[in-house]
Write a structure and sequence with these properties.
Layout (H helix, E strand, L loop, with lengths): L2 H16 L2 H10 L2 H8 L10 E5 L4 H7 L11 E2 L2 H9 L5 E5 L3 H6 L7 E4 L4 H24 L23 H32 L1 H6 L5 H31 L8 H26 L2 H17 L12 H6 L4 H13 L5 H30 L1
Parallel strand pairs: 1-2, 1-3
Antiparallel strand pairs: 3-4
Helix pairs in contact: 1-10, 2-8, 3-8, 8-10, 8-11, 8-12, 8-14, 10-11, 11-12, 11-14, 11-15, 14-15
């Protein structure tokens, strides 16, 4: 194996990528526009949720409850009758319909436990889940403050002192931006390497390589280092320029340590890309195969939901996936400021998985060339 062959073949791959406008657009979009939109598209809090109120009590307490719902969290409440409530919900005019029953204030002051009905349009999922909690907390606070005026000997309650670590303001865009980069590193490493191999076959240049004094290992390593270098540099640039610069997301840990983790993940996933390309053989098949492979890898890696909430057998199987360890590494480093002494087991696992994937892909690549 000659390093000059690997270097020159890799430069050839970079020139081929530079002449492919669609791939260049994909790389640029994945680490700029996609990162920004994924982080900011979903509202961080309830925003202008439509609410209607049926006030059957007509008391000072019901008026007080009605007056606490205002923009920007909610639209100005619409007062409706009980007969209008179902019709407006069916028509999609209201996300929330609050029904305050008759004698609500009187029953509360008498020591009873009156009930307020909250109807929620669950088809509006984001507002339904977060908004119902908002409304419950708002009403509970107003009822508690109102009751204290009439019951001086109110029972002492235990206060829960919340301290949000790593994201004190619960800014969702901070998490979304970094997670987008983590996922796109895996996706682009697989796509670029696999597409480079298939492009050789479709253009007929793979036969030219076979008659040259180069080995399969040199061809494969040239594709890995060239496409991996593109993903590595663009991901680091996106983290500094887009995430830290444009979006002003504070990074807690070492960017250099994250770059080392990204390099290991790129090494592992580029081998996976070559293996998938040898199985597919053509670009349409490669695209379909990526859907079957990349989607489970990203959904079950822990980037979108905690791995602890997944079934035990899923967590065990996903330990063989390189991006599972990369997600753990990246989140620990960038969000929690972890050092190498904390994340070295994930580094070791990622290096081992990369070596295994490289051996498997090399075997398939040799069979692919025959």
């Amino acid at each position: 194996m000659r390093l000059t062959n690997i270097l020159q073949l890799g430069v050839k791959e970079l020139r081929g990528l530079a002449r492919d406008p669609m791939m260049l657009f994909l790389v640029a979009y994945a680490f700029t526009v996609a990162v920004y939109t994924e982080a900011t598209a979903t509202p961080e809090a309830l925003n202008k949720a439509a609410i209607a109120i049926v006030d059957e009590d007509q008391s000072p307490l019901s008026a007080r409850i009605t007056g606490v719902f205002y923009p920007p969290y909610f639209t100005i409440p619409v007062r409706i009758t009980p007969t209008e409530m179902d019709r407006r919900m069916d028509a999609g005019l209201d996300t929330f319909a609050l029904d305050i029953p008759p004698n609500f204030q009187r029953d509360l002051l008498a020591g009873r436990s009156p009930t307020i009905q909250l109807n929620v349009d669950a088809t509006r999922m984001t507002q339904a889940f977060s908004g119902s909690g908002y409304i419950q907390s708002i009403i509970a606070g107003e009822v508690r403050d109102f009751s204290r005026r009439y019951h001086s000997a109110a029972s002492e309650q235990v206060d829960l002192d919340l301290r949000m670590r790593f994201n004190a303001n619960l800014t969702k865009s901070w998490f979304g931006a970094v997670t987008s980069i983590i996922n796109n590193v895996t996706m682009l490493a697989v796509v670029l390497t696999g597409a480079a191999l298939i492009r050789e076959r479709e253009h007929g240049t793979i036969e030219h390589l076979l008659v040259m004094p180069v080995t399969p290992v040199e061809i494969m390593l040239s594709k890995i280092w060239s496409m991996g270098l593109v993903v590595f540099l663009v991901s680091c640039l996106s983290l500094v320029v887009v995430v830290q610069g444009v979006m002003a997301v504070p990074i807690q840990g070492s960017i250099g340590l994250f770059a080392l983790a990204a390099a290991l993940d790129v090494f592992a996933t580029t081998g996976l890309g070559i293996a998938l390309a040898t199985l597919a053989g053509s670009m349409p098949r490669f695209g379909l195969l990526m859907v079957l492979v990349l989607l489970p890898l990203q959904v079950l890696s822990g980037s979108l939901s905690p791995r602890e909430s997944m079934p035990e057998f899923v967590r065990t199987i996903m330990l063989a996936a390189p991006n599972t360890h990369f997600v753990t590494l990246a989140q620990s480093i960038l969000f929690r400021g972890a050092g190498f002494e904390v994340v070295w087991p994930q580094f070791l696992a990622l290096a081992a998985i990369g070596a295994v994937l490289f051996a498997i892909s090399l075997r398939q690549f040799r069979a692919f060339l025959k």
